[in-house]
């Protein structure tokens, strides 16, 4: 889960919409900018982890965390849902379902369970088939990576199960890629960044270099990279811990102590 949070923080200042000057190179600097921050990706990932850790109602947790962090940068449809009395989903295929799902890949001990609960976490808001598929793909990728499957095998499974085209390199996609916040326009790209990365940091850099929804692309790529490469570098873990509020750090520590790789 820390991999997702670090990715979100690193990508937070490089989002393609910022000043209409997207990053389109891997060697951008600095990696963690002075104004880096956690965004809605982190807040809602932790909300899912809270729900899984303590068996809390997911809708209640998502809404509670959103109210607690109202300026984290939520999408319009999600924000309207979270600050309303409604509980029914709104048929979204946005990447919000995939950005928050990584704790599911650590919590459960079989792939079938991971797929089931990834679907459950998506369906409370993102009940469009693409929204569900994106969440399941990221959660499954995390599970397969952390349980020892190699990357060609992971790629083959995700292609066969979800129909994502994962052959094109990030270099081949970069020039034509435009900002996209849908699952179908970001999940395959985040997976590809993970598949061709040399290490954890490289996965984040590849995802951000597309010049799109940088925080979410790096959040998803970071979740996969942590599960495969192991604990993220100490300097990145330290930066993330410093930027998180104490209550968020406590929840992350409790979750990783029980289910996943700690910091």
UniProtKB/TrEMBL annotation:
Keywords: Hydrolase, Magnesium, Metal-binding. This is ADP-ribosylglycohydrolase. Its cofactor is Mg(2+). InterPro entries: ADP-ribosylglycohydrolase, Ribosyl_crysJ1, Ribosyl_crysJ1_sf. Mg(2+) binds at residues 39-41, 213, 215-216. Binds 2 magnesium ions per subunit. GO terms for molecular function: hydrolase activity; metal ion binding. The keyword Magnesium applies. The lineage of its organism: Bacteria, Pseudomonadati, Planctomycetota, Planctomycetia, Pirellulales. It comes from the Bacteria. It comes from Lignipirellula cremea.
């Amino acid at each position: 889960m820390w991999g997702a949070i670090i990715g979100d923080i690193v990508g937070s200042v490089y989002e393609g919409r910022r000043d209409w000057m997207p990053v389109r190179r891997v060697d951008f600097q600095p990696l963690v900018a002075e104004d880096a921050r956690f965004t809605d990706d982190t807040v809602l990932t932790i909300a899912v982890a809270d729900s899984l850790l303590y068996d809390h109602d997911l809708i209640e947790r998502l809404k509670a965390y959103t109210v607690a962090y109202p300026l984290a940068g939520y999408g319009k449809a999600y924000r309207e849902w979270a600050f309303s009395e409604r509980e029914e989903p709104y048929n979204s295929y946005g990447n919000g379902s995939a950005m928050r799902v990584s704790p599911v890949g650590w919590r459960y001990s079989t792939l079938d369970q991971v797929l089931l609960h990834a679907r459950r976490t998506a369906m409370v808001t993102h009940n469009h088939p693409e929204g569900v598929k994106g969440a399941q793909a990221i959660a499954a990728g995390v599970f397969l990576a952390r349980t020892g499957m190699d990357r060609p095998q992971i790629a083959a499974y995700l292609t066969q199960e979800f129909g994502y085209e994962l052959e094109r390199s990030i270099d081949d996609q970069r020039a034509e890629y435009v900002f996209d916040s849908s699952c179908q326009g970001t999940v395959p790209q985040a997976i590809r960044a993970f598949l061709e990365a040399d290490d954890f940091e490289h996965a984040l850099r590849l995802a951000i270099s597309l010049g799109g929804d940088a925080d979410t692309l790096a959040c998803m790529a970071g979740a996969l990279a942590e599960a495969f490469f192991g604990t993220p570098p100490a300097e990145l873990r330290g930066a993330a811990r410093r930027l998180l509020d104490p209550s968020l750090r406590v929840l992350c520590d409790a979750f990783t102590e029980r289910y996943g790789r700690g910091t």
